[in-house]
Design brief:
Radius of gyration of chain B: 25 Å
Largest sheet of chain B: none
Number of strands of chain A: 2
Number of domains of chain B: 2
Radius of gyration of chain A: 23 Å
Distance between the termini of chain A: 32 Å
Number of strands of chain B: 0
Strand content of chain B: under 5%
CATH topology of the largest domain in chain B: MetI-like fold
Strand content of chain A: under 5%
Oligomer: heterodimer
CATH architecture of the largest domain in chain B: Orthogonal Bundle
Number of helices of chain A: 12
Structural class of chain A: mainly alpha
Number of helices of chain B: 13
CATH superfamily of the largest domain in chain B: MetI-like
CATH class of the domain at 69-253 in chain A: Mainly Alpha
Strand order of the largest sheet of chain A: 1-2
Order of helices and strands of chain A: HEEHHHHHHHHHHH
CATH class of the largest domain in chain B: Mainly Alpha
Structural class of chain B: mainly alpha
Order of helices and strands of chain B: HHHHHHHHHHHHH
Shape of chain A: globular
Helix content of chain A: over 70%
Largest interface: A-B, 101 and 95 residues
CATH topology of the domain at 69-253 in chain A: MetI-like fold
Helix content of chain B: over 70%
Distance between the termini of chain B: 63 Å
Chain lengths: ~290, ~300
């Protein structure tokens, strides 16, 4: 009995510093965010806490376009990421052979250079005189020959920046897949298509769920891509929050927007997890997370 | 008949090409997607040799080495880079120690509140950075603490902990506990067991977690943007310089960091292989992907 008590104390002792850090600097600040969002703000001078719910309705009615735009951009980017990432993850897991490690390395290589410079390099790639845009113009994908500072440029940037977050979980779930199941499907006279849709795809669902969440969540709050690759008319909610906090110093409105963003994302994620019926994220031992 | 001399042979190779394309379609798409992911790195590399006409390094003008020679010749840039490195080293140290402790507790003990602890670790990874950044700023604003290196360090440790826990834990799961029992049976004290048996065995995982923490910290922009005050880190310098033109030297430094990361990854892989040879944690695996790849893949 003494031994189990000692063990238990050992566990709590090991957990304590990290738990305290996360509670103090992650959970408590969320409470303060909520509190700040209910302060009165008049002409940049803010007054103490006052249950000022009007901040929410004011902020939402002022910036509803940016909110909706953020979700349109991030959902589009997530879907494109999925369409690009699945074949790539599949190719790495089953078709790459001895090139497997090299391809995996290429997927994580973007992490080795600074995120901001990579995003800025898209200004070069998508500028009007670039070969990429000439090809797009020739193919009539961008007939005006102008891509930079438009919505597609922002979405392309989002897709580029969050693609590895989609590829890696899908790859991880495909790699864990028991290939004998695919052989069994073939033995039972399923064609390649049926095998894919009835065996491979359902078994890789946890990776798809994790990947879409890891892409969708950061993409919705992103403001770097819209800042560098978009026009003022492509501003996302992140740009508004950043500018209200750091330039206009309208803290209560900014905090209200931030809180609403978190709440909407949380609701979408919960619905999605329930709908997808997957334990990919919260599964007890669930491989990783 | 004579007008078409090879009607029988002509379709055969064409069908071959079509078949080859169909069979390798997934691989071809995969390679194209990888090209999409690597093009920006190539652009950064080539434009580090550019000699732009104005302040903006967006269009190719001509080849020069002068920016590479001057790579560390911009004082503000150097200062920002040094701040970033110092911050990343400290954040890595603190988050790796704290995170490894948490991972140890989660893997080896059953205790009340385990699910809650797991949840607390997962939730920061599922929160948009802008929410974490703005809530921390709100916290510091209401407390009235000044912003600067200290608040940056607090923030960076906060978002690194979860990733360290996840990486270290994924390594601990395959850990052979009998080795520790053996050490105990041979008369080792708990501290000796930890130092001489446990630590060397979990070291590759800890090192992988530390590398991930360092990479996350040195590249962080959003959370730093909110909590830096007047302190400037490398990403913050780039963001600030965007409107007036990012100096070409930034590309050189980015490529230098890229090179160092590749070397560090090679080193981890070597370390990992050595550790595995020393004590077969994963005996039946002839071919191992580079350490950082498994590290990052394990995160998901």
């Amino acid at each position: 009995m003494g031994a189990t008590l000692k063990r238990r104390l050992g566990a709590y002792g090991l957990l304590a510093p990290g738990t305290i850090w996360l509670v103090l600097f992650f959970l408590v600040p969320l409470y303060f965010l909520g509190k700040l969002s209910l302060n009165v703000n008049v002409q940049g001078v803010y007054y103490p806490f006052d249950w000022h719910w009007a901040n929410y309705s004011d902020a939402l009615s002022l910036y509803d376009t940016q909110f909706i735009r953020s979700f349109i951009y991030s959902i589009t980017a997530t879907l494109i990421c999925l369409l690009l990432a699945y074949p790539l993850a599949y190719a790495i897991a089953f078709k790459a052979g001895r090139w497997r490690h090299a391809m995996l390395l290429a997927v994580v290589a973007p992490f080795f250079t600074t995120y901001l410079i990579r995003t800025i390099s898209w200004v070069t790639i998508l500028s009007d005189e670039s070969p990429v845009v000439s090809v797009l113009k020739f193919l009539q994908i961008a007939p005006s020959g102008h891509v930079l500072f438009t919505a597609p440029a922002v979405i392309a940037g989002l897709v580029y920046n969050y693609l590895p977050f989609m590829v890696l979980p899908i790859y991880a779930s495909l790699e864990r897949l028991d290939t004998r199941l695919m052989e069994a499907a073939k033995d039972l006279y399923a064609n390649a298509q049926t095998t894919f849709f009835k065996v491979t795809l359902p078994l890789s669902a946890p990776g798809v769920v994790a990947g879409t969440l890891l892409t969708f969540i950061p993409a919705t709050g992103d403001y770097v891509n819209a800042e560098f690759l978009g026009a003022p008319g492509n501003q996302m909610i992140g740009n508004v929050i950043q500018s209200l906090y750091l330039k206009q110093r309208e803290y209560p409105a900014a905090a209200a927007l931030s809180f609403v963003l978190m709440a909407i994302i949380l609701v979408i994620v919960l619905i999605y997890i329930r709908f997808a019926g997957s334990e990919a994220l919260m599964g007890e031992e669930g491989a990783a997370i | 008949m004579s007008a078409t001399p090879a009607p029988t042979t002509a379709p055969a190779p064409r069908m071959g090409v079509g078949k080859w394309l169909r069979e390798h379609a997934v691989l071809i798409i995969g390679v194209l997607v990888i090209a999409y992911m690597l093009i920006p790195i190539a652009v950064i590399f080539f434009f580090s040799f550019n000699n732009p006409a104005g302040r903006y390094n967006f269009t190719w003008v001509g080849f020069t080495l002068k920016h590479w020679e001057n790579a560390f010749g911009i004082p503000e840039l150097n200062e920002a880079l040094l701040t970033s490195i110092k911050l990343a080293l400290l954040a890595t140290l603190v988050s790796t120690v704290i995170g490894t402790m948490m991972a140890l507790a989660l893997v080896r003990y059953e205790f009340f509140g385990r699910r809650a602890a797991n949840f607390l670790i997962v939730i920061p990874m599922a929160t948009p950075e802008i929410v974490m950044g703005s809530s921390l700023l709100s916290f510091f604003l209401i407390l009235g603490t000044g912003l600067g290196f200290r608040t940056l360090l607090i923030a960076h440790v906060m978002f690194c902990i979860s990733f360290v826990v996840v990486v270290v834990r994924s390594r601990l799961i395959g850990f052979d506990r009998r080795l520790e029992e053996a050490a105990k049976d041979l008369g080792a004290t708990p501290w000796e067991t930890f130092r001489l048996v446990t630590l060397p065995l979990i070291l590759p995982g800890v090192f992988g977690g530390a590398m991930l923490a360092f990479a996350l910290s040195i590249d962080d922009f959003v959370i730093s943007n909110f909590n830096s005050g007047t302190t400037v880190t490398f990403p913050l310098y780039i963001f600030g310089a965007f409107q007036r033109g990012v100096p070409v030297e930034v590309n050189c430094i980015a490529m230098i960091l890229f090179g160092i990361t590749v070397l560090a990854m090679g080193f981890t892989t070597w370390q990992q292989r050595r550790a595995e040879r020393m004590a077969s944690i994963r005996p039946e695996q002839e071919e191992l992907p580079p350490a950082a790849v498994t590290e990052i893949a394990a995160t998901y």
